[in-house]
Amino acid sequence: MHISELETPALVIDLDIMDRNLARVANYAREHNLRLRPHTKTHKIPALGRRQLDLGAVGLTVAKTTEAEVMLDAAPEDLLIAYPVLGQAKLERLRRIARKTRVTIALDSLEAARPLSDLGVDLGVLVEVDLGLGRTGAAPTDVPSLVQEIVALPHLDWEGLAFYPGHIKGLTGEDEAKSAKLRRDLHDLLNTLTALRLVPRIVSGGSTPLLFHSHTFAGVNEIRPGTYIFNDLNTAAMGACSLEDCAATILATVVSRREGHMIIDGGSKTFSSDRLATGGAGFGLLPAFPGAVFHKMNEEHGYVDIHECQNAPAVGERVQVLPNHICVAVNLHEQVYGIRGGEVVETWTVAGRGKLQ
């Protein structure tokens, strides 16, 4: 099937670009002796998780236990659930998962650790530390005592630390100061733990924006990037990739047009409603139509301002839109189409779609 035969809106992946992204990160991790445990939140597809494992990833990362169930189909030897597991139903699900593969949990409290210990199955634990994002994560000063308490619990194997530097988008200006503070705080924490004879086997960090700087953070030996497999407009806007590294676009049809304005057949149920982290208007870029601004959405309608677009498409023509945030966009689609040379050569069901528990 040719891409022109796909019903719209459709999420399409340029497989040549995706393969290049996967190989580049796998090679980077090998070159710098970093464990690669990619986050599957972006693609949510076991076949792509398997592809990452075949390229050298030591395991896969998920956020929720239902995502972990889905990623068992990728046959990973290791699954990291990078989110505290709380609640009886989730704990029972975790018990079943842990009987099928090795599971590690990232957590930041004793309240989250005790129920895991009571499950009676062996689990790895990474203590999550907040190094500036202000989301989950224990304060660095609280980590040593938390680690000591977890080490004393049965069935839990403390493996090390995890952090997510999502507050840092690059290594220039204000972000450089944030990076310097993160380095100092991590250095001090590792020294404190070492003095207590609590040496972490794993220090797991990384994000797609900082991916290729991961080796500059002393002590980090594992990375968990997710978006890199496809990249998106946000990743490019932050300077972490070029537009040529963006593999995922959404194919849409122009369904209405008048002077200076057109509507495409995808809105908030098709695209992420996220704005660019770097600022600026729009919900995506139309690369083939410079000057077009995708500025507004209803559920099924995408509003595109074409006042400054000299060759705007006519009603019935198709456009490809590079979304701001691909992780959320994938979660809105039931299927994803892999394209090579204009031909649809792979079709995947988004098996992790809506897996929120």
Quick structural gist:
The protein contains 9 helices and 17 strands.
List its salient traits:
8-stranded parallel β-sheet, 27% helix, alpha/beta, 9 helices, 2 domains, single chain, TIM Barrel, globular, 357 residues
List the helices and strands and how they pair.
Layout: E1 10-14, H1 15-31, E2 35-36, H2 46-54, E3 60-62, H3 65-71, E4 78-81, H4 88-98, E5 102-107, H5 110-118, E6 123-128, H6 143-151, E7 156-162, H7 174-195, E8 202-205, E9 222-223, H8 233-237, E10 248-258, E11 261-264, E12 284-285, E13 293-297, E14 302-305, E15 318-323, H9 326-331, E16 335-340, E17 343-349
Parallel strand pairs: 1-16, 2-9, 3-4, 4-5, 5-6, 6-7, 7-8, 8-9
Antiparallel strand pairs: 1-10, 10-11, 10-15, 11-14, 12-15, 13-14, 16-17
Helix pairs in contact: 3-4
Give the CATH superfamily of the largest domain: Alanine racemase
What's the N-to-C terminus distance? 36 Å
Radius of gyration: 22 Å
Shape: globular
What's the CATH C level of the largest domain?
Answer: Alpha Beta
Kindly give the count of domains.
2
Q: Spans of 5+ residues with little confidence (pLDDT < 50)?
A: none
Please give the largest β-sheet: 9 strands, mixed
